[in-house]
Specification:
The chain has about 130 residues and is mostly helical. α2 packs across α3 and α5 crosses α6. It is globular. The protein starts with a helix and ends with a helix. The structure holds zinc ion (ZN). Zinc ion binds next to loops.
C-alpha cells in the first residue's frame, strides 16, 4: 500500500512499519515480512494448520491471487477454517501496522498472534451459539 501512496505523492512510510525493511506492499505485509512470518508461524502452530507450500508468494503479483490459489488447494470442508485463519491473521497484521504508524506503539509477534487467537475463539463461540457451525 505504501507503493500506491508514494505513486500518488501522498504521505507514506519509507519502510515497512513491521520490520523496518524496504517499502511495504500487500504481499509483504500479509505474507513475506519477517514479523508477519513469525505471527503466521505462531498462529498456524496453534490451529495445527499449514499454508500451501506449492505457492511461492514471491512469484505472484498480489495477495488476492495468493488467496484464491491457496484456497483451491484445501478440501471444501477445510476452506472455511483456512479462510477464517487468513482473514483474522491479515486483519490483525493490518491493525498492528496501523498501531505502529498512528499510535506509535507496538505489540510483539506473540501478542499479535494472541489477538488472532482471540478473534478465532470468539468466532467459534459465536458460530456455536448461532448454530451455524
Ligand atoms: Zn516488513
Amino acid at each position: 500500500m505504501q507503493v500506491y501512496l508514494a505513486r500518488r505523492g501522498w504521505p507514506h512510510q519509507p519502510s515497512c512499519p513491521l520490520c523496518n525493511g524496504p517499502l511495504d506492499s500487500g504481499l509483504h505485509l500479509c505474507l513475506t515480512c519477517p514479523f508477519t512470518q513469525e505471527v503466521w508461524s505462531r498462529v498456524l502452530a496453534w490451529v495445527n494448520f499449514s499454508l500451501p507450500q506449492q505457492i511461492d508468494p514471491n512469484s505472484i503479483p498480489n495477495i488476492r491471487e495468493w488467496w484464491e490459489k491457496s484456497e483451491t488447494l484445501f478440501p471444501k470442508d477445510r476452506r472455511r477454517v483456512f479462510n477464517g485463519v487468513v482473514i483474522y491473521t491479515m486483519w490483525n497484521l493490518w491493525k498492528e501496522r496501523n498501531r505502529r504508524i498512528f499510535k506509535h506503539c507496538s505489540l510483539s509477534s506473540l501478542q499479535v498472534a494472541g489477538k488472532v487467537r482471540e478473534c478465532v475463539s470468539l468466532y467459534r463461540s459465536a458460530s456455536i451459539y448461532l448454530g451455524s457451525n
